[in-house]
Amino acid sequence: MTPTLDDVGTPLRWRERSPDIVVGLLTAGLGLAEVAVRTTWGGESGSVLFVLLVALTTAIARPLPAVALALVWLTGVAQFATGLPLLLTQLLLAYVAFAGARWGSRWVLALSGLSIPLGVLVGGVLLVYGQYSPGILVVQGLRDVLDRVGVSLLAGLPIALLTLAAAWLGGLALRFAGNAAVSRRARVEAEQESARAHRETAQAYEIARLRDEQTRMAHDVHDVVGHSLAVILAQAESGQFLPDADPTALKATLRTIAGTARSSLQDVQGVLSATPVPPGRLQALIDGAGSTGFTVRSHSSGPARPLPPELAAVAYRVLQEMLTNALKHGDRDVPVDVVQRWPAGPHEELELSVTNGIPVDGSPSGPGGGRGLDGMRRRLEAVGGWAQVAVDGARFSITASVPVRS
C-alpha cells in the first residue's frame, strides 16, 4: 500500500520517524567520534559495534520504549562481560529513561523508574569491589584528580542518579501534561457533542410541536367549518318549509345563515391567530344550534365557572363537534338535549352530553365515518378527559368529560 503523502509530497511515515532517526544518528556520530579520539590517544578500539547498539537503543526509545529499556540492560551486561570501557556517549541513554516515562506503558513507566536507582546501585557495587574499571581516559583522569583531593569516584554516582532521575521526571511531567491535554480535548469534544445532541433534540422537539400545532389547527378548522356548515345546511333545509307568503321568516333564516357564516369566519381567524376562546361561548353554541330549526333543550346543573384557556378551548371544540354531529345526522323532528354538569369541587370534571334522535333510515355515526368523533376523543385524551358514545333505541348520545382545574 502506498504511504499517504502530505502537502509537499513527503511520506508521512518518514516524517513521523525523522526525530528518532536524528537521535540515532546523533548518538552514533558522537560515539564513533569518541572511539576515534580514544584510539588516537592510545585507548582501546573495537567499540564500534557497541556504539551502534547504543545508537539503536536511543533511536527506538520513542516508538518502542519497552524494547529500548531491555536493550539498555543488555548493553550493560555485554559491556561488563566483554570488558568494554565506559563511554561518555552512554550518557545519552538518559533519553531512554525520558522516553519510558513519556511514551511507555504503565509497566514500562514503572520499570524505567526502578531501573534508574538499580542501575546506579549495580555500577557502584562494581566500582567499590573493583570488578569493573572504566578505561576511558577522561574518567581515568578524573579518578586521578579525585584521588589527589581525597574524593572517591563514587561521588559521581549521585550525579548520574540525578541526571537519569531528572530525565525520567521530565518525561513523566510531559506525560501528565499530554494526558491533561487529551482529557481537555475529550471534554471539549464531549461538550460539543452534547451541545449538538441538545440542538438536535430541541429541533426535533420544535418540529414535533409545530406538527402537533398544525394537527390541532386542522382539527379546530374542521370543527369550526363543519359546525358552521351543519348550521347553514339545517337553516337552508328549514327554509324549504317556510310559507311562501311569509318573507319575514325567510329573511330571518337568511340572516341566521349569514350570521353563522360570519361567525365561522371569525372562528377560523381566531384559530389561525391562536386567539383564546372567550368565556360564555358554550351557551352561544347551544343558542346557535337552536336557531337551525331543531328543537334544542338545554339543561345545566352545578355552578358554572371560568376554565383555563386550554381547557375552555377543549370544552368549546368538543361541544361544537357534538352539536355538529347532532345537526348533521339527527332526526329533525326529535328534540336535541344538551346537558352541562358542572362539578361542585375544584378538581373534578365538567360533563357535557348531547342526545339526538336517529332518523328512521339513518345511522348513529352518519356519513362522516366518525372522523370528527375520533378527533374529539384525541382532543379530550390530551388533557386527561374522555368521551363515550351510546345508542338507546332511537336515541343517540355522546357524553364527554373535561377536567376542571382552577
Automatic annotation (TrEMBL):
Keywords: ATP-binding, Kinase, Membrane, Nucleotide-binding, Phosphoprotein, Transferase, Transmembrane, Transmembrane helix, Two-component regulatory system. Its EC number is 2.7.13.3. GO terms for cellular component: membrane. One of its GO terms (molecular function) is protein dimerization activity. InterPro entries: HATPase_C_sf, HATPase_dom, Sensor_HK_TwoCompSys, Sig_transdc_His_kin_sub3_dim/P. Pfam families: HATPase_c, HisKA_3. It catalyses: ATP + protein L-histidine = ADP + protein N-phospho-L-histidine. Residues 213-274 form the Signal transduction histidine kinase subgroup 3 dimerisation and phosphoacceptor domain. The chain crosses the membrane at residues 20-37, 49-74, 80-100, 107-129, 149-177. Residues 316-399 form the Histidine kinase/HSP90-like ATPase domain. This is histidine kinase. It comes from Kineococcus rhizosphaerae.
